[in-house]
Amino acid sequence: MVVWKGWTGKILRVNLTTGEVKVQEYDAELALNFVGGRGFAAKILWDELRPGTDPLSPENKLVVAAGPLTALPIPSSGKLVIASKSPLTGGYGDGNIGTEAAVQLRRAGYDALVIEGALKTPGYLYIEDSKVEIQEALDTWGMDTFTSERRIRARFGEDAGVLLIGPAGENLVPFATVVCQEGRSGGRPGMGAVMGSKRLKAIVIRGTGEPTVAKERELEELASKAYDEIKSKPGYEKWTKYGTMMTVRWSQEASVLPTYNFSEGVFEEAESLYEEYVEEFKVRQRGCPHCNMPCGNVIAAEGGVEVEVDYENIAMLGSNLGIGNLRRVALLNRRADELGVDTISLGAVIGFAMEATERKLIKEGIEWGDFNGVLELIDDIVYGRTELGRLLAKGVRRATIVVSSDSWKFAMHVKGLEVSGYDCHAAPAMALAYGTSPVGAHHKDAWVIAWEVSSGDRLGYGKEKVEKVVELQRIRGGMFETLVACRLPWVELGLDLDYYPRLLEAATGIGVGFDDLMMVADRVYNIIRAFWVREYHVERRGWSYRMDYPPQKWFESPLTKGPLFGAKLDPEKYRAMLEYYYKLRGWDSNGIPRKSTLSKFGLDYVAKGLEEVGVRLSE
Ligand code: PTT
Ligand code: SF4
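Above: inputs. Below: predicted complex with tungstopterin.
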């Protein structure tokens, strides 16, 4: 029997159809090879989903996974990965959410929760240590997330960890997210819709234990040093004042602020979205558990309602739609949070509709900057109230099929996931990061844009750019997503990365070095890539290197404003970058892992699985 330190060694499994509950004691190999979080999720989904599973069927699984650092008394450890086969992309999907549920899950004695099947009528999954039950949720089904969460807390206790969905998840909008704590949202590629398809309104968790650690004193000392270091960083004060909202000004100055459906990188009203308005209208500050650099800035939006604002939300629902004025954009943000729908995809689908209207491709469309129209349209999308709403609720990739044969050129997505808030006309490395992200066009894995802008070779396509993308994917998408801790202490304030393997060793007693964690990261990337290839192959969607291309607009329509006037991506040079990327990853010319690569990471069973469904692997 394994004596676990750091990890709890247990995965809770719940089948909503049969009511069966199992506690799986997993083996050390899973922990060492996949660490936790995204690693566990990817392995479980690869192993357990029948190829070609319908994402909204009871057979799909929702994985909620912590890692060995989650919930420990160390910096920014209150995070969870939520993963599933995505109804938006048809591939692997996940998101990372800061939540009390992370702490409660580990206190209850589990590293992960795997939910399959579906309820007949809406319910809550209530977990209290070893007690697991389903309770009816008719009191909140159909209700917005803010009201629902308050009712759920009144019923189960204010201190419970709660993950829930809103009407978007219930109505199966493929970019519905899982939300919590009035302004935290995770699982962009439709994790909320997967929960909705299972008629699961909320997961409520309470735990009375604590994860045990191997070297308590060492962990305490390291954590205390890290907490102090974070507070002493030069950027600390500014960060806690403005959080991610500082990025609006930076993006405008760097010409990467998404504007008019990613047609431009500068917005004429950008200043009305700057961080000084956060300061002016701030009502409070909040953060995730165990964080001493809280970035949740809550402001009073137009009309007085409170909203936690972040860069992505404001860029995608503001400049990208031609709407200035922070308090107005915050109101759009609030409506998205109430309905439980991803602000990034929402901003991209509405931006698409505005461009299609301008091009006269749709009749009852919507104009740039139409704030009131957008406020209505968000509800139209979530509730399917109008033809335009129903069209956009498909996501931008599917909407192009209805709109016209070449609207795909301005549909801003990669593999079906809408692009997040950075324009890439003049950012080849960031375009590659979007192209090769393991969930579709998300900046979470390789946010290479800051490095690229200051690299002195902004428009270059050199090998060092590809290497940087891989390096960031390993650290951000690999290490942070498997340990499951917030990456912002490192990204924003420069906390030394070396802390993480040391914290892991103190927690688990196992000497895992930074290089070992990078190896785990690559293993996870390979299994996720194999998942995509398997699903697309079985569903006859076709897989080729074109899947790793950013939107056509960035190649075809140059910037017409700002200091980078005339810039656009070069297709030949992008292809060369992609080929080098595949070489570094050990993938073939279509981005499919080679047999030898899978073998190197101990994934021969994955190679076998791919061959069994007819995928031809190169040696
Ligand atoms: C993330 C994506 C982001 S990334 C933002 S703002 W960001 C948007 N937030 C939304 C929101 O809010 N409401 C809504 N209805 N939709 C939203 N969609 C968008 O979703 C998040 C922070 C942030 S704020 C970021 S960058 C960092 N992300 C981390 C990550 O991915 N991993 C990690 N280990 N640490 C991270 N730390 C930071 O956490 P998705 P959160 Mg989110 C209201 O999950 O699917 O990846 O989408 O979790 O608790 O809100 O914290 O400028
Ligand atoms: Fe949460 Fe922000 Fe702290 Fe990260 S930095 S843990 S996102 S409050």
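Residues 79, 95-98, 177, 183-188, 244, 308, 310-313, 336-337, 341-344, 444, 480-481, 486-488 surround tungstopterin (ligand 1) (CB under 6 Å).
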